[in-house]
Amino acid sequence: MLLVNHIRDNFEAVLAGLNKRNFPNAESLLNQVIQLDDQRKSSQTQRDQIQAESNAISKQIGMLMKEGKRDEAEKAKARTAEIKVQIKELDDENSRAEEDLKALLYTIPNIPHTSVPSGKSAEDNEVVLEHGKIPNLYDGKQPHWELIKKYDIIDFDLGVKITGAGFPVYKGKGARLQRALINFFLDEALKADFMEVQPPILVNEDSGYGTGQLPDKEGQMYHATADNLYLIPTAEVPITNLYRDVIVSEDQLPIKNVGYTPCFRREAGSWGAHVRGLNRLHQFDKVEIVQITHPDKSYEALEDMRSYVQGLLQKLELPYRVLRLCGGDMGFTSALTYDMEVYSAAQERWLEVSSVSNFETYQTNRLKLRFKGEDKKTQLAHSLNGSALALPRIVAAILENNQTEEGIKMPKVLHSYLGFEMI
RNA sequence: AGAGGAGUGGCAGAGUGGUCGAUUGCGGCGGUCUUGAAAACCGUUGUACCGCGAGGUACCGGGGGUUCGAAUCCCUCCUCCUCUGCCA
Predict the structure, then answer these.
(1) What is the CATH number of the domain that holds A74?
(2) Which end of chain A is more exposed for a tag (fewer CB within 10 A), N or C?
(3) Domain edge (last residue) among A106, A138, A167
(4) Within 7 Å: CB of A247 and strand B?
(5) Cα distance between residue A278 and residue A267, in whole Å
């Protein structure tokens, strides 16, 4: 969430940023924030003053008791009754103001970076670059949901029997392709100096709040109610929360982590014509990269992560393009997001396979993720993450783009991982 | 899962109702001494909020309660350890 002091000091800039997102009622909400913060401050100041008085009286009573002056002590006690009531009132007032302020801040999205184009929807995203040749396929080309049946490598019906729609079963070369991609992605990340982690894939409420899935997106996560745990929608949640309530020393930055996890999304009400086959699933595999950086270095890191992901797509020989998301299409918590899309030659459309974002202090403020530099001052770090990569759509694109009448050719870089070259 | 024990500052470890944000040791930082280092000695050493400042307030696993006053008493939750059971 945004820092109140930042809103105070940069009111016009914050307002302009929210307008770039087409965020409604921005000005009045920002004014409310400042007003609630003022309320919070004044109730706390009052509370602290009275508390100080009460503490003084208590000390006095302690001394009187020690000296055996029981009567005077009793007299002093009488005065505290009123103070107690006042403290209770101011306490309530203060915590109410704090809660209201927090609730309000939760509804305000991050401020877009100056380079973010204004715009309302995906159509206004800026195409930063396109790379690779869109393949010219033979006449009998098929979308991946046909190919997987033809070669018997992914079985949706079996998944329905075992679990339900959106939980495919990968078989034979299909399963081996999954495993190969995961290993390839992890090995590449290790070469790029990311430290591998294997986090839990169920997380508690605090973690959900830490990265912002709660309270807004509660309905998007599977909830194990018996234990009040959530299945992760992305490894971003457990990996970034590793650093919740942590103060690192400046020389430990940047922190670079990579993790492979399955991801679970309920995707309630989001099924339609474009989500056939592997395009949208309830469970899928993803390798995620996360960085925690010094505030001065986060945009450099973002560019590094972007070119890193581009490198993966190039090695997989997939035609892709990079989009800079516009204000209206960007995620709630992000300051700048690049989407990577691969071209799916049989569906004849672009598929999002990665999203790389800088959250600046928006997440770290909630997480209380700080660093301490030479000057001994603690300040919020910046957090970033990106998919590197999400498997299903990569699999879809590999299958579709490389299909021939003789079979499906596997990208060269995967051969040693796969143990075969064709499906 | 059952029985018992325990959670205190970076770490170790005192503190069982009063001036305790908390004795002490180690570590860290600064200094004295030294050609340099070690040793020794001296000083310093958390986080957050409010305040221009002086300063104030909160934090002893989390939450709640008793009390004029809670690290200390009560309730509850969490975590760890030991024993028993179960298990990949």
Answers:
(1) 1.10.287
(2) N
(3) A106
(4) yes
(5) 14
Inside any domain, residue A145: yes
Q: What is the pLDDT of residues A144-175, one digit of tens each?
A: 998 999 999 999 999 999 998 899 999 999 99
Q: How far is the CA of A55 from the C1' of B21 (A)?
A: 15
Residue A314 shares a structural domain with residue A218:
yes
End residue of a domain, out of A71, A106, A141: A106
Strand A407-408 vs strand A403-404: parallel, antiparallel, or unpaired?
antiparallel
Query: Are A319 and A337 in contact, with CB atoms under 8 Å apart?
Result: no
Q: Give per-residue pLDDT as tens, A276-323.
A: 888 889 999 999 999 999 999 999 999 999 999 999 999 999 999 999
Q: How far is the CA of A409 from the C1' of B74 (A)?
A: 71
Q: Using the CB atom, is residue A49 less than 7 Å from strand B?
A: yes
Same domain for A187 and A261? yes
Is the Cβ atom of A195 within 7 Å of strand B at any atom? no
Q: What is the biggest distance separating any 2 CA atoms in chain A, rounded to whole angstroms?
A: 102
Q: Is residue A265, in this structure, part of any structural domain at all?
A: yes
A215 and A161 share one domain: yes
Straight-line distance from CA A177 to C1' B4, in Å?
52
**Domain boundaries, position A349:** 122-418
- List the A202-203 sheet strands across, edge first: A202-203, A229-231, A223-224
The domain total for chain A is: 2
Strand B contact with A376 (CB < 7 A): yes
**Nucleotide closest to residue A57 (CA–C1'):** B68
Residue A166 and residue A98 share a domain? no
Residue count (chain A) = 423
Q: Are A249 and A372 in contact (CB under 8 A)?
A: yes
Protein contacts on strand B: list nucleotides below 7 Å from a Cβ: 18-19, 47-51, 55-58, 68-69
Angle at alpha carbon of residue A343, lines to A398 and A177, rounded to 5°: 15
Q: Which residues are A356's β-sheet partners?
A: A338, A386
Report CA(A155)–C1'(B88) in Å, whole number.
Answer: 28
